[in-house]
Amino acid sequence: MYVCRKVQGDISGLKLTHNSTIYITVMATNAAGLTTVSHGQPIIVDLTPPIFSHIGDGPGGKKRGDDIMAFRTIASGQSIAMVDIRDALNTSAITVYSTVRCFNKAGLVVATKTDGVEIVKEKNKISLQELSVLSGTQSESIYSRGVYHQDQNIVRFHWSQADRQLRSTVVEIVGHRHPYQDDIPNHLQYTYATLSNVNFETGSACNVSVVPVDIFGATGEKTTSYFTVPTEPPTVADSRSISLMQNDIKLTASWKNMFVSPWNDLDYEVHGGTLLGGADIVDRMLTNKEEIVLRLNSRQAEYISVMITAIDVCGACSQRAQRLKVKQD
After folding, report:
1. Overall domain count for the chain
2. Partner of 229 at 20 to 30 A CA spacing, among 8, 154, 284, 328?
3. Domain around 88
4. Quick one: which of 62, 106, 98, 60 has its CA closest to 80?
5. Do 175 and 241 sit in the same domain of this protein?
6. Do 93 and 22 have their domain in common?
7. C-alpha closest to that of 170 among 221, 96, 100, 226
8. Looking at the domain assignment, is residue 292 inside a domain?
9. Which tens digit of pLDDT belongs to each residue from 227-272?
10. CA neighbor of 130 nearest in space, from 164, 157, 169, 149
11. Does 3 fall in a domain?
12. Is the C-alpha dihedral spanning 80, 85, 86, 91 positive or negative?
C-alpha cells in the first residue's frame, strides 16, 4: 500500500483470525532512489469481545426488550444511565429489565441483561402471618396447656415464609435481662431460629418478634408471640408412697397428696407393668385423678411396677416409681 509522504496508513478489508500473528513492513524511498526497509514488532490478533463485570437493574418491560426506552449511546467511559419510567408505570407494579450493548474499537460487540427489578407504586406492608414458639425436648405425652416454655437456656421459634422477596428477617426477643436481636439474611431462606445460652429467669415473661425487611430496605409489620418461663416443677413428698388396693384381679393404684405444686390442677401419666419399668398393664395413660384401676390378665404376677408422672399446666413434670406386691390366694 502506497501512502506517499504520510507517516501512517489504514489497511481495511482484511480477514483476521483470533490469536494469529501479523507483521508490518515499511519501506521508505528518498528522491535519490535510496531505500530503507523497517520491520515492526509482531502483533497478536485479539478478537475477544468486551466483557461485563456486572450490571445493575433498570429499562424494559421484558427481558432484552426496549419498550420503555430504545437503545441510546452513552459516552465512552460512562457506566451509569438514568431513565424516567413514570409514563411506563401504569400499573401498581412492574418488573423492569436493563440490556446494555458494548462496542470496542475493533467493532466487536457484546450484550448483557439484568435479572429484573420490581418497581411498585404502592404496596401493603409486608408481614409474616405466623410466629410460634416451639416446645423443648419433652416427650410427646408431656404437654403444656398454656404458652409456657420449659427450657431456661434455649428457645426455638418458627415463622411463616413471606409472600414476596425479602432482604432479611429481624429476630428479636425481649422481656428478660439480656434482650436479643439478630438480622438473618434472606438468601439463607431460614424460617426457624434457635437462641442458645439465653438464661431465662424462672417466672419471666418474654416477647418474641420477627420483622421482615424487603429488598428496598423497608421494614414490614412486626409479628409477635410470647411465652412464660414457669416456676419449679411439682415436688414429690417423701412421706407419701403409691398404695395398692386389690379386689381379685382388679387393682387400684393411688397416690393421693404425693405431688406438691403451686398449680392445683395437675395431670398424671401412668405406666404399669409386671416387669420393672414395663408397661404391659397400662402404657402412658393420662388422668387428672389421683388413682387408677389396673387389671391383671392373671394372678400369676407377684409384683407390679407403677410409675406416676405429675404434669403441671406449664408442662413441667416430676416422677415417682414404685414396686408393689400383689396378694396371692
Report:
1. 3
2. 284
3. 17-123
4. 98
5. no
6. yes
7. 221
8. yes
9. 877 777 889 998 889 998 887 778 899 999 999 987 778 999 999 9
10. 157
11. no
12. negative
